[in-house]
Amino acid sequence: MTDTLDTTTTGNGILGTGIREGLLLKPVTYPWAMELYDQAVANTWFPNEVQLGEDLGDFERMSEDERHALTFLMSYFNPNELLVNKALAFGVYPYVNAAECHLYLAKQMWEEANHCMSFEYVLETFPIDREAAYNSHVEVASMAAKEEFEVRFIKRMTEQTLDISTTEGKQDFVRNLVAYNVILEGIWFYSGFMVALSFRQRNLLRNFGSLIDWIVRDESLHLKFGINLILTVLEENPDVATPEFADEIRGMILHAVEMEEAYNRDMLPHGILGLNADYINTYVRYLADRRLEELGFEPEYGVANPAKWMAAANDTLQLVNFFESINTSYEVNTRADS
Predict the structure, then answer these.
(1) Could you describe the subunit structure of this protein (predicted)?
(2) How far apart are the C-alpha atoms of 326 and 242, rounded to whole Å?
(3) 120 among annotated binding-site residues
(4) Residue 79, Cβ neighbours under 10 Å: how many?
(5) Helical residues (DSSP H) of the chain, grouped into ranges
(6) Cβ distance 121 to 47 under 8 Å?
(7) Cα gap 237→170, rounded to integer Å
(8) Could you check whether the bond before residue 27 is cis, i.e. omega within 30 degrees of 0?
(9) Does 168 count as an annotated binding residue?
(10) Is residue 211 a contact partner of residue 52, using CB atoms and an 8 Å limit?
(11) What is the DSSP string of 285-312?
(12) Which is more confidently placed, 167 or 323?
């Protein structure tokens, strides 16, 4: 591992704002970032490769509550894929030195754009009221609350320049990573993916399910990159992970669970066949426990995974310790078929 960071412009750590640093790819300093970039390139796909029109018959046969749930997901996913790009562009990319990290972040930003266009494809294919779907993310209180939570962290990154030579600046960097990567991508998105894929479990919207599969595959890499980036910052900067800061991070995640539970009650106010808000919220609590454990915290809820068929998408990371800030296994499987 590299030495502890001591300035914002030297190449001694993963954090830095120097323009002349990070211009040479080899030798690679952080192999995990290079491996994730290679896997992301191998995973490249395009939305129109999926024949969504074949799902139109299923959509027409779905109940009003089922169509409401699908529209609700599109209302949230569509703008928030672009919100993630803002978090990356303003809150992560400018503060990272390593060329291999810049390569991966550039590919991730393209993937987020591709996901946005995927959800546009859904809105163009299914008879969904686009204006109503767009308006929901500001008009539905539970959905707007989630977005405002993320915006608060991103605004801090866009409206001021962090001094990442200070403990406070590095903590702000980690807060943003937790907000967009662990919470938005690692809990909220995965909760939505489970709902989206639940239709295929009932032999509905099978092509839509394939599209979601591809998005989940991308998001699993985003989660790995974000967790490894958090761990590397903590390992190189032991001043960051104070007990008070760790308590704050845990509190952020628990608050995120409460917001997601309210959102899911609005998405499924009456329930649909095989799925209701309580079921989804048990899954949310399971996800939160997984993310807490991956950061070295004790689980909060102690619930079993109610959607065992989503297990492969959930359990993608090595267990680490937020307090020790050491990752014992940065290596990832780079096979394109994994």
Answers:
(1) Tetramer of two alpha and two beta subunits.
(2) 14
(3) no
(4) 18
(5) 31-42, 56-61, 64-91, 99-125, 130-139, 141-158, 167-177, 189-201, 206-236, 243-267, 277-294, 311-314
(6) yes
(7) 8
(8) yes
(9) no
(10) yes
(11) HHHHHHHHHHTTPPPSS----S-GGGHH
(12) 167
Catalytic residue among 37, 95, 104, 121: 121
Q: Find the range with the poorest average confidence among 34-43, 159-168, 171-180.
A: 159-168
The DSSP result for 219-287, as a single string, is: HHHHHHHHHHHHHHHHHH-TTS--HHHHHHHHHHHHHHHHHHHHHHHHH-SS-BTTB-HHHHHHHHHHH
The answer on whether 255 is annotated among ligand-binding residues is no
CA distances in angstroms from 84 to 33, 76, 182, 244, listed in the order given = 19, 12, 12, 27
Q: Is 95 noted as a catalytic residue in this protein?
A: no
Q: Which residues contact 201 (CB under 8 A, 6 or more apart)?
A: 274, 309
Give Cα 141 to chain centroid, integer Å. 21
Contact 219, 185 (CB under 8 A): yes
- Chain segment 212-224, per-residue pLDDT in tens: 999 999 999 999 9
Place of tokens 């990371």: 317
Taking residue 337's Cβ as centre, other Cβ atoms within 10 Å add up to: 6
Residue 112 marked ligand-binding: yes
Amino acid of residue 273: L
Contact 287/187 with Cβ under 8 angstroms? yes
Report the distance separating Cα 97 and Cα 8, nearest Å: 9
Classify the C-alpha dihedral 71-202-209-124 as positive or negative: negative
pLDDT surpassing 70 at residue 338: no
- In tens, the pLDDT along 279-291 reads 999 999 999 999 9
| Domains by residue range for the chain, with CATH | 31-314 (1.10.620.20)
Of 222, 160, 199, 210, residue with least CA distance to 59: 199
Specify the 3-state DSSP secondary structure of 16. Answer: coil
Residue whose token pair is 């090595």: 318
